[in-house]
Write a structure and sequence with these properties.
The protein has three domains: about 70 residues; about 120 residues, 2-Layer Sandwich (Zincin-like); about 130 residues, Neutral Protease, domain 2 (Orthogonal Bundle), CATH 1.10.390. Helix content is about 35%, strand content about 20%. The chain contains ten helices and twelve strands. Helix 1 packs across helix 4 and helix 5 crosses helix 7. The longest helix has 22 residues. The N and C termini lie close together (about 5 Å). The relative contact order is 0.22.
Length: about 350
């Protein structure tokens, strides 16, 4: 799994017997719920002799709620304050979404994933990184990927089924393309997630249809990063869906699976497309536009900007690690290993 290593240095008085405690200041949203935490003490005496204690591990929970869990295959769902039928329904939605990903896009879940379901906006808000009072008052986060294998969900919202499909797709595609060099283009990442929801949302469809009528589509090359213009958000997601739909319906899911595999090798956007389809992003743009009844455009230079939509949020609380009396010490080091497994 993903590892994050933290070191802490507790205050103590050196002596033949020492009792020390290290309290890690964990901020709201810093550690996703149900992360596995492993820690050990590193003890060093005046002579430089070093001893590492045996690691101790535990699961970091959002202890505000009495969690239950239900596992089916590689998916574990955590929930509270609802019956088992509620959890089973959401788990069934997750499996239906995964089956659609495999059937229509050729993408399979490679590792176990966790769905953490909250019952209200207020409950979920305290598990997310703070975004400011105005934003938090006006925006409802329906779902968000908080680590490579963990999704937080607003489980009672009417759009929860679409949200599960969308966020699970991000996790599955993220695992399928994970590499040390870079991410896949935004049009592919968001396009696959939108496509996994099913029919395109009305606001995105209307923005796309209007742009087609007026011949003012954003170029594929400019869709490599999300738009920073609020007025283009609906069009951005509509176009991403449309480009992915074009690739899947024209060239099939096998080519899409091959494209993701090439990205996993660390290929650049244009190189990956050339290797799989025989054209780069400009070639894709021309073919996609032609499928919509539009003429090709001239050479395009992308001007990607920072995304206007807030970044994904995460959970928090407090960790307290204790050390029992030990040997004579001059230096004490605690190493915390957080595995989001």
């Amino acid at each position: 799994g993903e590892e994050v290593i933290n070191r802490g240095y507790p205050d103590f008085t050196p002596g033949k017997e020492v009792t020390a405690e290290y309290v890690m200041d964990v901020q709201r949203g810093e550690i996703p719920p149900f992360s596995e935490i492993e820690y050990f003490w590193r003890i060093e005496d005046a002579a430089g002799n070093r001893l590492d204690t045996e690691p101790i591990s535990f699961v970091y929970e959002d202890d505000r709620f009495p969690w239950q869990s239900l596992t089916q295959g590689k998916v574990t769902l955590y929930w509270y304050d609802a019956d088992r039928a509620f959890a089973q329904r959401l788990l069934d939605v997750a499996w239906k979404s995964l089956a659609r990903l495999e059937k229509e896009m050729g993408v399979e879940l490679e590792e176990p994933v966790k769905l953490v379901v909250y019952q209200s906006k207020a409950d979920m808000l305290k598990a997310l990184a703070p975004k400011g009072r105005v934003f938090e008052a006006q925006v409802i986060t329906l779902g968000t990927v908080v680590s490579r294998d963990t999704v937080l969900l607003h489980g009672t919202h009417r759009d929860v089924e679409r949200t599960i499909a969308h966020e699970l797709c991000h996790v599955v595609v993220g695992l399928a393309t994970e590499n040390p060099y870079g991410d896949i283009p935004a049009w592919l990442n968001e396009g696959l997630a939108m496509y996994s929801e099913g029919e395109l949302r009305r606001e995105n469809r209307e923005a796309l249809e209007r742009a087609i009528r007026e011949n003012r589509l954003i170029s594929v090359r400019s869709l490599t990063a999300p738009t920073g213009k609020p007025e283009e958000i609906n069009l951005f997601y509509g176009e991403a869906y449309s480009v992915v739909e074009f690739l899947l319906k024209t060239y099939g899911k096998e080519k899409m699976a091959e494209l993701l595999a090439v990205f996993k090798e660390g290929a650049t956007y244009d190189d990956a497309l050339m290797r799989v389809y025989g054209f780069d992003q400009d070639g894709l743009d021309a073919r996609w536009r032609e499928s919509l009844g539009l003429p090709p455009r001239g050479v395009v230079e992308a001007t990607p900007v920072a995304m206007a939509v807030p970044e994904a949020e995460r959970p928090r609380g407090g960790l307290c690690l204790g050390l029992l009396p030990g040997l004579a010490l001059l230096t004490l080091l605690v190493v915390l290993i957080s595995r989001k497994a």
